[in-house]
Amino acid sequence: MMDTKKAYFMGYRHIADLAAMNRIVDLAADNRFNEYALELMEAWREGAVAAQAMIEKESATIQ
Hints:
Elements: H1 4-29, H2 34-59
Helix pairs in contact: 1-2
């Protein structure tokens, strides 16, 4: 069940995650770390796709 403490934490994590993504983008701007930054972005994308699939599976109904 969602409560205000959990909602606060989710909002806090959202901003912290956006800051981390900005740091990855900064790495991509530096040619020495470009490949590493792309690997991090791909891992982030895979995690987002997995989370989306879990959300969709939870809300799906058997037809």
